[in-house]
Amino acid sequence: MSRVGGRRRRAASRSGWWSWRYTIAVTFLTLLVLVTGGVAAVAYANLRWLEKSEAAGREALAAARTMARDLLSYDYRTVERDLARARAHTTEELTSHYGTLATTLARDARKERAVQQATVVAAGVETAEPDRVEVVLFVNMNITKQPPGESEPRVQHRPNRARFVMVRQDGRWLVAELSTLLGSVPAE
Questions:
Q1: Where in the cell is it found (predicted)?
Q2: Is 106 buried (19+), middle (13-18) or exposed (0-12) by CB count in 10 A?
Q3: Other CB atoms closer than 10 Å to residue 82's CB: what's the count?
Q4: pLDDT tens digit string along 39-82?
Q5: 116 contacts 105 by C-beta, under 8 angstroms
């Protein structure tokens, strides 16, 4: 009887040992699957964010190139209409800035008979997020002025740079910030 009881005890202790190893193995594999799933979910979310950012960059870059002419060009004969067209491409905050600018720019443009034409020669995305993109534009500015008392107009051709911060509002891209970049434009 003691022999049978000993076998039972050894079998019971072995089965306890196997069930303990089995529990650890199942727990480890479960944690491994959960961690792998979590990493995959985060990687997928990051990939989707990057894809959306890249698409936003392409869209905002195209919009900025188109809008730059309206935002940076004016003619003294149509300056009010030119500024109104520019305001249509801006957020409320920048629109109010254009309202302030309109009073002085319109007066000065008419006084000097100024015509400024902007032509985008190159542009690129500086940073991009799905709803906010910073675009740098290389712009040739052709400026013609004929101040009072001068018989001939002065013509200037200046390479310039500008940065537009583009934001998506109601499904379309608008300029939220506009700044010209100081310093010389690199020579080719």
A1: Membrane
A2: middle
A3: 22
A4: 888 888 878 877 888 999 999 999 999 999 999 999 999 999 99
A5: no
Rounded Cα–Cα distance for residues 46 and 34 (Å): 18
Per the DSSP assignment, residues forming a β-bridge with 172 are 169
* 179 contacts 163 by C-beta, under 8 angstroms: yes
DSSP E strand stretches across the chain: 74-75, 115-129, 132-145, 154-169, 172-180
Q: Report the predicted TM-score, pTM, of the whole model to 2 decimal places.
A: 0.72
- CATH 3.90.190.10 assigned to 2-180: no
Quick one: tokens of 140? 């040739």
* Sequence spans of domains, the chain: 2-180
188's tokens = 């080719």
Closest CA to 74 of 131, 25, 118: 118
Task: Compute how many other C-beta atoms are within 10 angstroms of the C-beta atom of residue 50.
Answer: 12
Contacts of 184 (CB under 8 A, 6+ apart): none
